[in-house]
Amino acid sequence: MKILVILSVGIAAWAYKAIQPPPPKICGSPDGPPVTASRIQLRDGRHLAYKEHGVPRNAAKYKIAFVHGFDSCRHDAVVAKTRSLEVVEDVGIYISFLSFDRPGYGESDPNPKRTVKSMALDIEELADQLELGSKFYVIGSSMGGQVIWSYLKYIPHRYSGVALLAPVVNYWWPGFPANLSKKAYYEQLPPDQWALRVAHYAPLLT
User: Fold this and answer.
1) Are the C-beta atoms of residues 64 and 98 closer than 8 Å to each other?
2) What CA–CA distances, in Å, run from 144 to 60, 65, 120?
3) Do β-strands 136-141 and 62-67 pair in parallel, antiparallel, or remain unpaired?
């Protein structure tokens, strides 16, 4: 019996070690990839990479920060890339879009102490260093939608407006009618269904 217990513990320890991700290679570090993006340094020493779209910030009437989704980065600012320049110029709206790599994505440093609140504070510090003003707009796309809720909760005094673009939905939320959430869930592609199952039933793996 003791041998079986020892063997089981050994297998469990090996399995745990096997599923641990390798240490991240930080952009700009000796063994990491080179830095090619514009970046700011946060108070805790981490870097956030960003990209600007549209008119220069000092000429913009509307300043918008774009939060990307799960498998995206600063280059995937859908709204900024698909806007109609003719419409923008015709109505005289001057818009500056700011997209950035969330911590651990693209050329932004990972945040081992990441919390729900820390992402909102990262956006606030990014906006302050780039002088977006006391208030600005924020758009969250797909999985970036969860960051918007953090933004609304922790720094509500900083937004002029927010928008959710095709946000990921919690299909197990009790406030949704069961028949509606079930129907919507099964209209997704199978890989997306499995991804949400894992996130719901085994959140430590995400």
Assistant:
1) yes
2) 24, 11, 11
3) parallel
List CB contacts of 9: < 8 A, sequence separation 6 or more: none
pLDDT (0 to 100) of residue 84: 67
A 10 A CB-CB count for 56 gives: 9
Output the pTM of the full model.
Answer: 0.77
Determine the residue type at 92.
Answer: G
Cα–Cα distances (Å) from 36 to 68, 96, 101, 122, 161, in that order, read 19, 21, 13, 20, 31
How much is the pLDDT for 92?
54
The phi-psi region of residue 90 (left if phi > 0; otherwise alpha if psi is between -120 and 50; otherwise beta) is alpha
Q: Report the phi/psi class of residue 21: left, alpha or beta, with left for phi > 0 and alpha for psi in -120 to 50.
A: beta
Question: 3-state DSSP: the chain helix, strand, coil percent, rounded to 5?
Answer: 40, 20, 40
**Can you give the pLDDT at residue 18?**
80
CB 97 within 8 A of CB 122: no
E strands along the chain, which residues? 38-41, 47-54, 62-67, 95-100, 136-141, 159-165
Regions of the chain with pLDDT less than 50: none
Q: Tell me, what amino acid is at 26?
A: I
Residue 131's φ and ψ, nearest 5 degrees, are 55, 55
Task: Identify the burial level of 60 via C-beta atoms within 10 angstroms of its C-beta, where 0-12 means exposed, 13-18 middle and 19 or more buried.
Answer: buried
What's the pLDDT at 91?
Answer: 53
